[in-house]
Amino acid sequence: METTPQDRTRPRHEAGHAHAAEQPFTYPLTRQYAEPDWTRIPGYREVTKQEWESAQWQRAHTVKNLNELKRALGELLDDELYADIERDQRERATMSMLLPPQMLNTMDFADLRADPVRRYMAPAFSDRATEFPSHPMASRDSLHEADMWAVEGLTHRYPTKVLAELIPTCPQYCGHCTRMDLVGNDTEQFLKYKFEAKQNERWDAMLDYLRRTPSVRDVVVSGGDMANVPIKRLQEWLFQLLDIENVRDVRIATKGLMGIPQHFLQDDVLAGYEAIAERAHQRGVEVAIHTHVNAAQQVTPLVGNAVRKLLDMGYRDVRNQGVLLRGVNTTPNQVLELCFMLLDHAKVMPYYFYMCDMIPNSEHWRLSVWEAQELQFAIMGYLPGFATPRFVCDVPFVGKRWVHMVSGYDRTKGISHWRKNYRTGIEHDDPEALQREYAYYDPIYTLPEEGQAYWREFLARERGLELTPV
Ligand code: SF4
Q1: Which residue's CA is minimally distant from atom 1 of ligand 1?
Q2: For residue 9, what pLDDT band results from cuts at 50, 70 and 90?
Q3: What superfamily does domain 146-401 belong to in CATH?
């Protein structure tokens, strides 16, 4: 029998009965968005607000060695931890110490040994892995960025984008720095590469390469840290970059935005950044700022103030590229708390978390690929999709791959295999580049006993010889 419109009944739903449930991660946050009181630190007891908010004062009082750290922290740094950091600097450190007071003030002195910021900015010998502090396949320039230089300091790895390493210094030095080959001062164990060409010549050569390479549209302007380039010099170079027809996206990289936000709140620096934003707007180029925050406690109002100024000038975005570091930010709660602090308070977009790279002595910080995959799963669904960070493995000779893109994985030996869909700048004549599989290695202490035994034998065989990829 035929039904008429009158016979049909409109579907109905029961009154809403969903409600907020208890979740593995609890929101809203309980952490305060506040500048920690620096006068709790013995060396800063007499420091005024005006001094604290001065970039000159921050730079002049940046902690450059362990003695200065002790002078600043006094009784907050006990003898045992002091000796442990001292031994690390003698035997393991790949980066020298450099800590602006602003960053020091974000440490939690109730338990300095366990504090996430201390663990990555002032590493101690006993933090490191014992049997294998370095993976046998670790190397200084583990991403082979220098191998892919088109001109000195300009890495051409991806088809349409390049990385310009303008300078090798930062206002702070991070223990896990992936550019430890190049960035910072020599340490007891590691002499740094020094750029050979003069800075002006190098910077000009980069621009020349970009002018004659129209396939490049996107330039990451990094180092080092752009907070260490005098603003006038940065502005001049960026103006020339923005005049290149093929350049459509520019990203300015600075961890200093968090480490020393006072730098970005100076009148001349603000004027320079405003001029850069205006020039980019006239040219129809998107300019964004990329920063590097690894711990929720480092998101403070001074950071938020600096970010707000940049966003108000028209920067496309301020994005965070953190590094996953065990003991710092590798539980779901640590990652989510950091992302919500960035998003809610500082207006910084959570963007990427890189797996810590295979540089020497980094094993204790690194995660296995499967751990990173589980962590990515654990954070899904809490943040808005546009602010859900991707966890990426930067695979040597490949580039960034999302951690679930692994094409093969031997969990026993901890060797993952990855493929790529483009040629890096040094593979233009390599017919196999797109068919080959590239390896990445889990930290050995995370492997089952059989896998650990494999690497012990591997090392015994290879000790003293040049290593070749497995
Ligand atoms: S700020 Fe970046 S480049 Fe500088 S030491 Fe830290 S990780 Fe390395």
Answers
A1: 255
A2: confident
A3: Aldolase class I (3.20.20.70)
